[in-house]
Design a protein that fits this description.
About 30% of the residues lie in helices and about 30% in strands. By secondary structure, it is an alpha+beta fold. The protein folds into 2 domains: about 110 residues, no CATH class; about 150 residues, Galactose-binding lectin (Jelly Rolls, Sandwich), CATH 2.60.120.430. A 7-stranded antiparallel sheet has the order 1-4-11-6-7-9-10, with no helix packed on it. Strand 9 and strand 10 form a beta hairpin. The longest helix has 18 residues.
Length: about 280
C-alpha cells in the first residue's frame, strides 16, 4: 500500500467511526411547559426534578377546546450526524407524543411527531428513527420521513390523547443514536485497486453527510479523494486528464451542493473505467 493510500485510509479510520451519542440535558431549568391555555384550554402541568429524572405531571382537560400539555426544551445543541433518538421513561400507561422542532420546516401548532405507549409505573426504553417522524400541524399530517439530524432544533413530550385525567411521565434519559456503519467488505476493498478503494470509501462516508444536509463536508471529502487519486501513478493518462479537468471545473462552482454532485459524477466515471484487480 503506497503512502497516499495509507494516509487516506488512516484519515477514514479516524473520521469514519460512528459519532458519540448526545445526551439531552434534563435539568428543569433547561425545559419549559406549554399548555392549552394559550388557546383557551384549562389543562395544567409542571416540571419537577426527581431522583429518577425530570418529572412532568398535571391534569389534562378537554374544556374550552383544550386537551394538551407539552414539556419542551428551551434549546438543543446536538451533533448533526445521528440517526434517531432513544428515550428511557417511567410512564403512566398513556400514549405520548415525542416531538421535534425543525429549523427547516416551521410548523404552526405542531412539529415533527412520533408516538409511544407507556406502562404505568414501569421503566421502558423507546427508539425513534428520524425516518419515522411525521410533520403535523393542528393534527393534520403535512409530511413524513423527511426529518434530518441537522433540522433538530428542539424536542419535547406531549400528552394529547383526549382523555380527561391526570398524567405523570418521568424522563430518565434522552440520547441520540447512530446505526452501525458496516465496514467495507473484502470484495469492496481487499481485492480492488487502490483508486477504487479510495472512491468507494469516499462515497460510503460522503452519502450520509450529504443526506444529513452537510453538503460542504461531502464535497470536501470527495475533493480529498479525487486529489489523492490524481497524485497516484496507476491512473491511465487520458482518464487522469479527464478527471483533472472535471475536478478543476467542480472546484470553481459556488454551490457546495453542485460541487458535491460534480465530484460524485467524476468518481462514478473513475469506477466505471478502472477495473478491479484480479
Amino acid at each position: 500500500m503506497g503512502p497516499v493510500v495509507a494516509a487516506f485510509t488512516l484519515l477514514f479510520a479516524a473520521n469514519g467511526a460512528n459519532p458519540a451519542t448526545n445526551e439531552v440535558d434534563l435539568q428543569p431549568t433547561q425545559w419549559r411547559v406549554v399548555l392549552d391555555g394559550v388557546m383557551g384550554g384549562l389543562s395544567s402541568g409542571k416540571l419537577t426534578e426527581s431522583k429518577s429524572g425530570l418529572k412532568f405531571t398535571g391534569e389534562l382537560s378537554l374544556k374550552n377546546n383544550g386537551g394538551f400539555a407539552w414539556a419542551r426544551t428551551r434549546r438543543l445543541d446536538l451533533d448533526r450526524n445521528f440517526d434517531g433518538f432513544e428515550i428511557e421513561v417511567q410512564g403512566d400507561g398513556r400514549i405520548w407524543d415525542f416531538m421535534i422542532d425543525s429549523s427547516r420546516r416551521r410548523v404552526m401548532a405542531g412539529g415533527y411527531r412520533t408516538r409511544f405507549q407507556t406502562k404505568k409505573g414501569v421503566r421502558t426504553t423507546h427508539r425513534f428513527p428520524l425516518s419515522g417522524f411525521e410533520a403535523v400541524s393542528f393534527g393534520q399530517v403535512l409530511a413524513r420521513g423527511d426529518l434530518r439530524a441537522s433540522d433538530c432544533a428542539g424536542l419535547g413530550v406531549l400528552i394529547g390523547d383526549k382523555k380527561e385525567a391526570s398524567f405523570d411521565l418521568t424522563l430518565i434519559k434522552i440520547t441520540t443514536y447512530s446505526a452501525p456503519r458496516a465496514p467495507l467488505s473484502a470484495t469492496q476493498v481487499g481485492i480492488r485497486s487502490p483508486e477504487r478503494s479510495i472512491v468507494l470509501q469516499a462515497i460510503e462516508m460522503g452519502v450520509p453527510r450529504y443526506n444529513d444536509g452537510d453538503h460542504v463536508g461531502c464535497a470536501d471529502l470527495y475533493e480529498l479523494a479525487l486529489s489523492s487519486i490524481l497524485m497516484m501513478g496507476d491512473v491511465p493518462d487520458d482518464l487522469r486528464a479527464k478527471t483533472r479537468k472535471d475536478f478543476r471545473a467542480a472546484m470553481a462552482l459556488t454551490s457546495d451542493e453542485d460541487r458535491a454532485w460534480s465530484h460524485r459524477r467524476n468518481m462514478d466515471r473513475l469506477l466505471e473505467q478502472t477495473s478491479a484487480a484480479p
